[in-house]
Write a structure and sequence with these properties.
Keywords: Membrane, Transmembrane, Transmembrane helix
Subcellular location: Membrane
Largest sheet: 2 strands, parallel
CATH topology of the largest domain: Growth Hormone, Chain: A
CATH class of the largest domain: Mainly Alpha
Radius of gyration: 27 Å
Number of domains: 3
GO molecular function: transmembrane transporter activity
Main location: membrane
CATH superfamily of the largest domain: MFS general substrate transporter like domains
Distance between the termini: 54 Å
Strand order of the largest sheet: 1-2
Organism: Aquilegia coerulea (Rocky mountain columbine)
Number of strands: 2
Strand content: under 5%
Helix content: 55-70%
Length: 582
């Protein structure tokens, strides 16, 4: 894996690099002459409407702010909702969230393909926003209509773990709500930021300054929204009612859609210019057809490959021919009858350009880093669910009357992230740069490695503390199973996880942006979501395996046979904990 050591700004928000900036051979050949004569690559339609610029920003940023506040406010406390209102055990609720989150994180790949290849960003955002609204309305109705969720649990039922669970119909409504939300995220996540960038003319200095300013405002509002969602919205859900706590985000989503459509007269609409996924498929198909072809020497290879100019296309950075993954290079070798007299390809699934081949090589080069990120993100996924469960079984009082909502503890990680990033960027990196002579202070691979170390430490600390918390709950024998330990003792593991996110997530974003050319930045961004999706699925698998083997081992130790279909939560009620330990 290579890293680009060329000069760049240290900020991870402004990264813009080529894949591997090496010079290619300039020798001429009949194939080259034909390509240079016609400069044939896929052409794009030039939009006639003038970019809206800052005139469209109140609608774009307003839509973004309301949409994110609605979505994050709805999802920040979903674990508590499933445990308290649907009476799910922890394992089942965790698996529901992990599988749904994994599906939601894979969705942007499909949304990006539909947007880029078929209907464009505006229509994708419009349909996705409506889908999100339908999902929020459905979920709000589960809180407002008693028949759509299990009946309330009495104190005696709660202590005996005899609360009625959801019926198949009630689960069906819940899954339908989450499905609509996944569809909405599939369209909104890959298109929201690029749609905002489309509103500026990147060919002018004013437009480029506008884009930079838009990024700053975009991430500023994102941070503010997270803080509001994890505090105010979660507090309303815990302290007032779930109807209000879910209804407010739903209303905000409705306002977001209205604001989005009000700005239709000033938006810049960029037509779909083709998807990167089609090019990837074409490269593999052409390479497979030519799998028996013997490549010429490295000196002769530049003369026999299809390498047209990228002028007049959506591609702004041309990648040179490399000799790594030579089996893919065969897809660009020109055979008789594959290129027309005008220099165009006769069959896109038989011959590919050097640009297409090198883009696929960029993808293959990052797969090891992508796979290793799944392991790191699994710990983040685990703490996103089980930390809430831990908090529910601890003393959450802050003063005589106020209780910290369990879903608000994520603020600790966010504060850690917010305080560490400017310190790292403005103070630590300049000092490290003097020692290492590296522009970023340390390499991106080192940065991601440090993030993995912090994620491991966070899980180790969480495991040690959970042992103490559970022992305290058993020792004090409280009827509700709550340990008399302050919930703030969860801060160390959350601080460590915040540092893991600061190193790993930001490092991965910057790494992907450096490894891909300009027009693949959106695809590079989607790889981060795919990493999260893989972590969600792996987390669900680990939870199921550990839960199944733990239950079986407990019954083997006692010489009993488990009842089929019996559910035993990881953090069981005190009565069960005492029974098992005795």
């Amino acid at each position: 894996m290579k890293e680009n050591n060329s000069s760049s700004t240290p900020s991870w928000l402004s990264c813009s690099f080529k894949c591997f900036p090496m010079s290619s051979s300039s020798s001429s050949s009949p194939v080259k002459e034909k390509q240079e004569k016609y400069d044939i690559v896929e052409e794009t339609t030039t939009p006639k409407r003038k970019p809206g610029g800052w005139r469209s920003m109140p609608y774009v940023l307003g839509n973004e702010t309301f949409e994110r506040l609605a979505t994050i406010g709805l999802l920040a406390n979903i674990m508590v909702y499933l445990l308290n209102e649907y009476h799910m055990d922890q394992v089942f609720a965790t698996n529901v969230i992990n599988i749904w989150s994994g599906t939601t994180n894979f969705g942007p790949l499909i949304g990006a393909y539909i947007s880029d290849a078929h209907i464009g960003k505006f229509k994708t955002l419009a349909f996705a926003s409506i889908a999100s609204l339908l999902g929020m309305i459905s979920l709000t109705l589960t809180a407002a209509i008693p028949q759509l969720r299990p009946p309330r649990c009495t104190k005696i039922q709660l202590q005996r773990d005899q609360c009625m669970g959801p019926t198949k119909g009630q689960l069906g409504i819940l899954y339908m709500s989450l499905g609509f939300l996944s569809i909405g995220a599939a369209g909104i996540r890959p298109c929201s930021l690029p749609f905002g960038v489309d509103q500026f003319d990147s060919t002018t200095d004013e437009g480029r300054k506008g884009i930079a300013s838009f990024f700053n405002w975009y991430y500023f509002t994102f941070t503010i929204v997270i803080m509001i969602a994890l505090t105010l919205i979660v507090y309303i859900q815990d302290s007032l009612s779930w109807v209000w706590g879910l209804g407010i985000p739903t209303s905000l989503m409705f306002c977001s859609i209205i604001l989005f459509f009000i700005g239709t007269r000033v938006y810049m609409y960029v037509p779909p210019g083709g998807s990167v996924f089609s090019g990837i498929g074409q490269v593999f198909a052409a390479a497979y057809k030519k799998r028996g072809l013997k490549l010429p020497s490295e000196e002769e290879l530049p003369h026999v490959v299809y390498d047209p100019s990228v002028k007049g296309t959506t591609i702004t950075s041309k990648l040179p021919l490399t000799h790594q993954f030579s089996f893919l290079t065969k897809a660009a070798v020109v055979l008789e009858g594959e290129v027309g007299e005008d220099g165009s390809r006769l069959d896109k699934w038989s011959i590919c350009s050097v640009q297409q081949v090198e883009e696929v090589k960029c993808l293959l080069r990052v797969i090891p880093i992508w796979a290793s990120g799944i392991i790191c993100f699994t710990s983040m996924s685990q703490q996103g669910t089980f930390t809430v469960s831990q908090a529910l079984k601890m003393d959450r009082h802050l003063g005589p009357k106020f209780q910290i909502p369990a879903g608000s503890l994520g603020v600790i990680s966010m504060l850690t992230l917010g305080l560490w990033v400017p310190f790292y960027d403005q103070i630590l990196v300049p000092r490290l740069r003097k020692i290492t002579k590296h522009e970023g202070g340390i390499t991106l691979l080192q940065r991601m490695g440090i993030g993995m170390v912090f994620s491991i430490l966070s899980m180790v600390v969480a495991g040690f503390f959970e042992e103490k918390r559970r022992a305290s709950a058993i020792l004090h024998a409280s009827p509700d199973g709550i340990a008399p330990i302050s919930v703030l003792w969860l801060s160390p593991q959350l601080i460590l996880m915040g540092l893991a996110e600061a190193f790993s997530i930001i490092g991965q974003i910057e790494f992907y942006y450096k490894q891909f050319p300009e027009h693949m930045k959106s695809f590079a961004n989607s790889l981060l979501f795919c990493t999260m999706a893989g972590a969600n699925y792996l987390s669900s698998t680990i939870v199921s395996i550990v839960h199944g083997n733990t239950v079986a081992s407990r019954y083997r130790y006692k010489g009993e046979v488990p009842v089929e279909g019996e559910d035993t939560p990881i953090d069981i009620e005190l009565s069960k904990a005492k029974h098992i330990d005795n």
